[in-house]
Amino acid sequence: MRSSNPVFTRRGFSRDSGYAGFNAGPQLQTGTPYAGSPTNPYAQPGNPYAQPQVGPDGRMTPPAAPTRAGVMTIDSVISRTALTLGTVVAAAAVAWITDMPVGLGFLFALVALGLGLWQSFKREPSPPLILAYAVAEGLFLGAISNAINAVAPGAAMQAVIGTMAVFAGVLFMYRQRIIRVTARFTRFVIAAALGFVLLSAVNLIVAAIGGGNGLGLRDGGLGILFGVIGVVLGACFLALDFKMVEDGIAYGAPERESWMAAFGLTLTLVWIYLEFLRLIAILQGD
Q1: Are 240 and 115 a contacting pair, CB within 8 Å?
Q2: How far apart are CA 24 and CA 9, in angstroms?
Q3: Sign (positive/negative) of CA torsion 199, 200, 206, 212?
Q4: Full-model pTM
Q5: Residue 262 and residue 86: Cα distance in Å, rounded?
Q6: What is the DSSP letter of 7?
Q7: What angle do CA 145, 151, 154 make, to 5 degrees?
Q8: Which residue among 28, 80, 173, 181 is least enclosed by CB atoms within 10 Å?
Q9: What is the pLDDT of residues 89-115, one digit of tens each?
Q10: Residue 18 in 3-state DSSP?
């Protein structure tokens, strides 16, 4: 089973035999160990985090943040994510203040797409490439947000608040194990995401060929429903991303993987923000 977030699918954070990644196996689906521990791709001689940790409730839980230098920790993930998101926000502010044309913003969106795909298929994370993606993505977000905010006042701030609320809510529910990332949950999210993207692509093609709004997924009641589904899918992606980060820390992944975690979280948050922005614009009738 592969992660819903494409940046994790080539990182060792996901393998075909388990929802939690790291060539996990059936014990991660049931929360109980079995004969023959799972393979840790980051295992090294003397690495105390080479084996999974099983909590008192039988569930896989990460150990305390490693003190050994050079491994992925929650602090390293937070710092890299803050830097990446901060770059996105700074670039968006530049585009907003300079009143960047929407057409130029979409050009930067294509650049961000190319850089994101490049990083996704690289074997090693590249901080300069990730930050370059953040700049291009931020310029696009600033341009599109400014344009939508002009016809739907307050839409950008409402989208930011909505994104923050979803992030905080999913993090709380994940930490409280209200959301449990299981194999079934992962399969459902991936299938729903593929359907969502495919339907969006068909809608875009129909709109390009026949004009108008294609299948009607971008306005009216159907557009609102589609937007809500997009936000919910983004929330599900966050839960999967949190699980991947948790497992990376538990297995003592190299510190450089913190950049991939930051990249993946940024992709998901951008998805949620754009869905909120479009949804708010529809609700305001624009």
Answers
A1: no
A2: 14
A3: positive
A4: 0.78
A5: 11
A6: G
A7: 60
A8: 173
A9: 999 999 999 999 999 999 999 999 999
A10: strand
